[in-house]
Design goal:
Order of helices and strands: HEEEHEHHEHEHEHEH
Strand order of the largest sheet: 1-2-4-3-5-6-7-8
Number of helices: 8
Radius of gyration: 18 Å
CATH class: Alpha Beta
Structural class: alpha/beta
Number of strands: 8
Distance between the termini: 47 Å
Strand content: 15-25%
CATH architecture: 3-Layer(aba) Sandwich
Largest sheet: 8 strands, mixed
Number of domains: 1
Helix content: 25-40%
């Protein structure tokens, strides 16, 4: 373990757990295992938040989408809203993975949150997942009055692959010009397939949780071709976009030991050069998904930064 000495000491305990291999042969088992682990987590009781499922029409020919919707119980008037996109390397995950976090965030910010169950690769490669997210965004805009949300204060938030889809959704919404996003909130987003073939890979990142082999499998599953191939759509890998101008304000957070460190920092740099407001945080000693250590000082700091940025973003209107 070459980079272990760089890990924040409070984040070391998680690294004692068994690692996992991901492939076509293990994927079904991993999905089942993660779903069982999530089901075993106690659901908080008595919180002042309403939770319901909404079925949303998808793109023609695609199955209806499920949104897990959160709204504070005491929420008079029209609320700002977050379209949340879960992580999982494009091949794993459900909205339930962020259930507890979304409950708490809805209460803390006084906002509505809609977490979309997009279709996963490799069964559904690009453009299926991003089109699912776009359909969810269009639904929020079209039914804003019924949902009790402000169409001028709808933003997108995602973690890892969900952050990648969130960044791609901001590009797609800009280019189609049908609906708008007030902000994009990207937590260690997975946005550049070319990281898999970089000729000079960063020597200290990607050793823990989400590794280079994991990354190659995730990207190949989404793209249906080898990562780094020419002609990859920016709506699959947002870092491929030639122009980043005209995008909504962006928050990016990533750990200094995360495989996505350099692609995220470069995206932030390019956004600033395109005139897009950017808030970038790099957390020392933190690997991918370090928030799975909920009580670590760096996790609490990251949560404070993220919540503060979301609160500020929701005060702005398009």
């Amino acid at each position: 373990m070459e980079s272990r000495h760089l890990v924040d000491p409070e984040l070391l305990p998680l690294l004692a757990q068994p690692t996992f291999e991901i492939s076509n042969d293990t994927l079904h088992g991993l999905r089942t295992m993660f779903a069982e682990e999530r089901a075993a987590v106690p659901v908080p009781q008595g919180q002042p938040v309403e939770i319901r499922q909404i079925m949303v029409p998808a793109r023609a020919g695609a199955p209806a989408l499920r949104l897990l919707a959160y709204r504070p119980t005491q929420s008079p008037g029209t609320l700002p809203a977050i379209l949340h996109i879960h992580g999982g390397g494009y091949v794993l995950g459900t909205p339930e993975m962020a259930d507890i976090a979304n409950r708490e965030l809805s209460i803390a910010l006084g906002c509505a949150i809609f977490s979309v169950e997009y279709r996963l690769a490799p069964e559904t490669p690009h453009p299926g997942p991003i089109e699912d997210c776009y359909a969810a965004l269009k639904y929020l805009h079209a039914h804003a009055t019924t949902l009790g949300i402000d169409p001028a204060r709808i933003g997108v938030k995602g973690e890892s692959a969900g952050g990648g889809l969130a960044a791609a959704l901001a590009l797609l919404a800009r280019d189609r010009g049908e609906v708008s996003l007030a902000f994009q909130h990207l937590i260690y987003p997975m946005i550049d397939d070319r990281t898999c073939i970089h000729p000079d890979p960063h020597p200290w990142v990607g050793e823990f949780i989400w590794t280079r082999p994991h990354n190659a499998f995730g990207w190949a599953s989404l793209l249906g071709t080898a990562p780094g191939s020419p002609g990859i759509s920016p709506y699959a890998a947002a870092a491929r976009a030639e122009s980043l101008s005209g995008l909504p304000p962006c928050f990016i957070a990533v750990g200094a030991l995360d495989l996505f460190l350099e692609e995220d920092m470069d995206y932030a740099r390019r956004l600033t050069r395109a005139g897009v407001p950017v808030e970038l945080h790099v957390y020392p000693g933190a690997y991918h998904a370090f928030q799975m250590n909920p009580d670590a000082r760096i996790t609490l700091e990251a949560e404070r930064d993220s919540t503060a940025a979301l609160r500020l973003a929701m005060q702005r209107k398009l």
